């Protein structure tokens, strides 16, 4: 078998042969991303309700599998805020966060969503992801970002009780002021670092300094909430056990939404990479790579991963050119997991909350709704409904995505069922335009000239037939019909039947059906149906120019009693 065959299934075989100059650049890019990956992985594990070490596991094995089997090799794969929130919200009420049952269910979500992505990639079904439009994704991500912020406020501010107690009996004693100082101070430092040095791995620096300060102040000994003991060593193979039908049915919808949202996160990063590299994005291979990564994550007792837009952007900004940068980042995570987990013991949990909050604030973009409103008010409403339902249905917030997707499909079907059909006239500049909009005269007496900007299929055929019959009923003197068919790229059986019906209507009036600009696929289908055979009542033209020349002779012919034009 050829090298191209093996490289198709094992993309890492196509990586460039490393040399000293390449490895030097890849090393520093990998270190930059790796220093961000460790604190974010631990923080996102807390967001997902998982044991904190699971975040490091998710930054190790799945990241390696993804970079080896994905077409986009410079993506920062690992835990992400959005996917972690989906997992944590989906499992609420099904198990106790951090318990063995919770871990098993989270692993099953990773395995199920990974299998679905793997099958979609192998079947070349990546195009299905285009069903989720930007307005739906924007509404969902912004609502999810607000939910993430809300979930982290208690940890960030050191709140010891629930927010109800704060409203009923507000007191400084409800807060751990030292923890609040750690959280809010870390948040301020991270925001400043992101503004002034966006490519600097500020998260690991802030986490390290906070851990040192916490150790010096003996914050853990005073009862402060810290990361605590993390097991060191490589993750072992994990099997979550048999899944009862009741649990399986409860995980189907979360697995579907995790599959959808996580790969849309991947798509947003992969498209940026493909634009910079000048190569076409292979979405099906990325589906395979991301699916295998999720499966591997579940099999080491971790949770579903995705491609982080922020880490991917920093990887590109740091000069990464190949997958070797990700390999170096994974090596750094491995070093931390084997020897440096005790260094995370004293890190306050409020600092982890600050890491999460800093990461998700970039997802909140209220001006997006204003820009969308100027482009499409209908799609703005769809985005707003997705946003509102995501908030209202939390923790089952996947209903926001599903309703938004359904509304978008309804809009698509409505637009297909109501195509733009205009009666054309000749504009003084020589172009064919909407006759009624520009107040133009008809192309010829007793003629209806139409252009439909859509395919002639089951969705649009009824609208075209209705438009013609309504006009013929309102104008009994109309005998000729001209169809400018250049925009029609496809025709199906319903379209063929409608074309035949239009031909019958025109022939019954003793007129001619004039058709210009048939494209080869449409012409081939109609010819096979026997509707383009030479005979009275049909005239075809290659171009609109030919059709206009023939139609301009229509009035003189009618004046001399000629029933119609001969077929072209």
Describe this structure in words.
The chain is mainly alpha-helical and 568 residues long. α19 (461-474) runs parallel beside α20 (493-508). The chain contains 23 helices and eight strands. Helices cover 59% and strands 6% of the residues. The protein has helices spanning 3-9, 20-47, 53-58, 61-69, 81-91, 100-122, 134-157, 163-168, 177-196, 202-216, 245-277, 283-298, 309-317, 324-340, 349-360, 367-375, 377-392, 398-417, 461-474, 493-508, 520-528, 544-551, 554-559; strands spanning 76-78, 306-308, 421-426, 432-434, 447-452, 480-484, 513-516, 538-541.
What's the quick description here?
By secondary structure, this protein is mainly α. The chain has 23 helices and 8 strands.
Can you tag this structure with a few keywords?
single chain; six-stranded mixed beta sheet; mainly alpha; 8 strands; 568 residues; two-stranded antiparallel sheet
């Amino acid at each position: 078998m050829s090298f191209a065959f093996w490289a198709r299934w094992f993309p890492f075989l196509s990586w460039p042969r490393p040399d000293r100059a390449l490895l030097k650049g890849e090393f520093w890019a990998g270190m930059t991303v790796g220093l961000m990956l460790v604190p974010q992985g631990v923080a996102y594990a807390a967001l997902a309700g998982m044991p904190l070490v699971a975040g490091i596991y998710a930054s190790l094995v799945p990241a390696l599998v993804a970079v080896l089997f994905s077409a986009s090799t410079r993506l920062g794969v690992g835990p992400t805020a959005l996917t972690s929130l989906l997992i944590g919200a989906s499992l609420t009420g099904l198990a106790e966060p951090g318990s063995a049952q919770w871990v098993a269910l989270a692993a099953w979500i990773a395995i199920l969503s990974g299998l679905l992505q793997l099958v979609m990639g192998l079947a070349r079904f990546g195009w299905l992801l285009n069903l989720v439009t930007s307005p739906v994704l924007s509404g969902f991500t912004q609502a999810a970002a607000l939910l993430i912020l809300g979930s982290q406020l208690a940890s960030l501010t050191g709140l010891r009780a629930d927010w109800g107690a704060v409203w009923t009996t507000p007191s400084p004693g409800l807060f751990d002021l030292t923890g609040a100082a750690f959280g809010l101070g870390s948040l301020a430092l991270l925001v400043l670092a992101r503004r002034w040095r966006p490519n600097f791995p500020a998260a690991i620096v802030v986490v390290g300094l906070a851990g040192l300060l916490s150790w010096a102040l003996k914050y853990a000994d005073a009862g402060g909430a810290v990361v605590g003991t993390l097991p060191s060593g490589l993750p072992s193979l994990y099997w979550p056990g048999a899944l009862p039908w009741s649990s399986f049915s409860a995980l189907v919808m979360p697995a579907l939404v995790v599959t959808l949202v996580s790969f849309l996160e991947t798509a947003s990063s992969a498209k940026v990479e493909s634009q910079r590299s000048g190569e076409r994005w292979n979405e099906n291979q990325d589906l395979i790579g991301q699916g295998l990564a999720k499966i591997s994550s579940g099999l080491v007792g971790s949770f579903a991963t995705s491609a982080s837009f922020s880490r991917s952007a920093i990887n590109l900004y740091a000069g990464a050119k190949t997958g070797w940068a990700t390999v170096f980042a994974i090596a750094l995570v491995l070093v931390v997991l084997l020897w440096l987990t005790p260094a995370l013991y004293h890190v306050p949990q409020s600092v982890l909350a600050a890491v999460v909050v800093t990461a998700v604030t970039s997802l909140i973009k209220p001006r997006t709704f204003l820009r969308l409103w100027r482009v499409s008010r209908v799609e703005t409403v769809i985005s707003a409904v997705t946003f509102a339902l995501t908030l209202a249905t939390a923790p089952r917030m996947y209903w926001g995505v599903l309703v938004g997707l359904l509304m978008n499909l309804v809009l698509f079907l409505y637009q297909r069922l109501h195509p733009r059909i205009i009666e054309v006239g000749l504009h003084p500049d020589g172009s064919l335009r909407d006759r009624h909009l520009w107040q133009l005269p008809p192309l010829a007496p007793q003629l209806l000239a139409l252009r439909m900007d859509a395919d002639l299929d089951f969705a649009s055929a009824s609208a075209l037939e209705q438009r013609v019959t309504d006009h013929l009923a309102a104008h009994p003197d109309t005998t000729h019909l001209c169809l400018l068919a250049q925009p029609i790229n496809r025709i199906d059986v319903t379209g063929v039947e409608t074309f035949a019906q239009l031909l019958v209507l025109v022939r019954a009036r003793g007129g001619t059906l004039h058709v210009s600009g048939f494209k080869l696929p449409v012409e081939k289908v109609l010819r096979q149906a026997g509707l383009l055979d030479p005979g009275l009542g049909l005239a075809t033209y290659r171009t609109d120019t030919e059709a206009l020349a023939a139609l301009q002779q229509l009035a003189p012919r009618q004046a001399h009693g000629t029933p119609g034009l001969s077929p072209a």
